[in-house]
Design brief:
Blueprint: E1 3-7, H1 12-23, E2 27-34, H2 40-53, E3 56-61, H3 63-79, H4 86-106, E4 110-112, E5 117-121, E6 127-131, H5 148-151, E7 154-155, H6 163-173, H7 194-201, E8 213-216, E9 222-226, E10 249-254, E11 259-263, E12 269-280, E13 290-295, E14 303-310, E15 313-323, E16 330-335, E17 338-345
Parallel strand pairs: 1-2, 1-4, 2-3, 4-7, 8-11
Antiparallel strand pairs: 5-6, 8-9, 10-11, 12-15, 12-17, 13-14, 13-16, 14-15, 16-17
Helix pairs in contact: 1-6, 3-4
Length: about 350
């Protein structure tokens, strides 16, 4: 029997994960991180479900830490014309890190979460991440930055279940959240308006990222005026405010000239991608070119590619062009259901 700190959001996944571990005979304490002011309702749900499970529940107020790490990284990235994935950054640098630190201080053996993925020890002695059984819910992409030290103390009990199986278990247990819908938005920007959030957070919105400039095509022809670089992401088509004879998409942002470059859909595809801030999971180095499948966005399908590590950067050549690789997003590599590793697209 282990003493496990269970990350509880109040949702069906973490609630059912806690029940699975409790039924296995482990000592479970639920923990909810208070990361921003809008989470009070989630905390109440987590407390209610913990009480229903008959386990202790604690709240760790980490709002200031979250603001100074995750939110700051998000806003600074957008100001530099980079499109970050805050969930990936948060998992490594905030959520799991804070829970693991608390677990270490309080004598817990492991931290558990309701992610649809698996953490295992491999034959080479490294901790690895595998995809969850439910391909439609697999969350291994957002976990690839976790370190070996972190993975050594993390349990993910939902990896062998489908979402429907988890909902059915929750129904049978009488959990009120069994049918709860899932949020697809960034937790601290529930309305999805990233630009408005950044402008509200920034005291100085006179910098180049906030100033109107020109939309141009790839030849430099001016197509209209944009509202400021923070309002646009690579691959965006809607919300440009232009009347054009054919659909066009954002394919680049140039801070030096304050231009947003537009192209047709074909212009978004690339075969060669370079990624830095590399984290390898199932191996400690890549010394020769290796064959992987990889994707450059969470929602994309994987594409076969060759990859080599050069000067601490992943140099990836895809067999077929991939759509809209965006600086700041993550390129994640797989060997079957095994996460090889990944990096931040440059």
């Amino acid at each position: 029997m282990s003493k496990i700190l269970m990350a509880m959001s109040g949702g069906v996944d973490s609630t059912t994960a806690a029940m699975i571990l409790k039924n296995q005979g482990h000592e479970i304490v639920g923990a909810t991180l208070l990361l921003h002011d809008a989470e009070n309702e989630e905390i109440l749900r987590a407390k209610e479900t913990a009480a229903q499970l008959g386990i202790e529940h604690i709240v760790l107020d980490k709002r200031e830490y979250f603001k100074n790490t995750v939110v700051k990284n998000f806003t600074e990235s957008y100001k530099k014309c980079i499109t970050p994935n805050p969930c990936i950054y948060c998992n490594k640098n905030c959520k799991f890190q804070l829970l693991l630190e608390y677990a270490e201080e309080e004598g817990f053996d492991y931290v558990a979460s309701g992610h649809y993925a698996k953490v295992e020890m491999s034959d080479n002695g490294r901790y690895v991440i595998r995809k969850g059984k439910d391909a439609s819910k697999d969350q291994s992409y957002v976990l690839y930055q976790l370190t070996q030290e972190q993975l050594s103390r993390i349990i993910m009990p939902l990896g062998d279940y489908t979402k429907e199986e988890i909902r059915q278990m929750a129904r049978e247990a009488g959990f009120a959240n069994a049918e709860a819908k899932e949020s697809q938005d960034i937790c601290f920007i529930p309305d999805g308006d990233y630009a408005a959030f950044i402008e509200k957070k920034e005291e100085n919105t006179t910098g180049p990222a906030f100033q109107p400039g020109d939309f141009v095509d790839r030849t430099g022809k001016v197509l209209g005026r944009h509202k400021g670089l923070v309002h646009y992401t690579i691959g965006q088509r809607k919300g440009l405010g232009l009347s054009l004879p054919a659909p066009m998409y954002v394919c680049a942002k140039i801070p030096q000239t304050n231009q947003v470059v537009l192209c047709d859909n074909d212009g978004l595809f690339k075969k060669n991608v370079v990624a830095g801030n590399v984290n390898l999971v199932c191996m400690d180095s890549i010394n020769v070119p290796i064959r992987v499948s990889a994707k450059v966005r969470y929602s994309q399908h994987e594409t076969m590619a060759m990859v080599l590590l050069v000067d601490d950067k992943l140099v990836v050549q895809f067999d077929e062009p991939v759509r809209a690789p965006a600086p700041g997003q993550s390129l994640v590599m797989y060997a079957g259901d095994l996460v090889v590793g990944g990096g931040i697209i440059e």
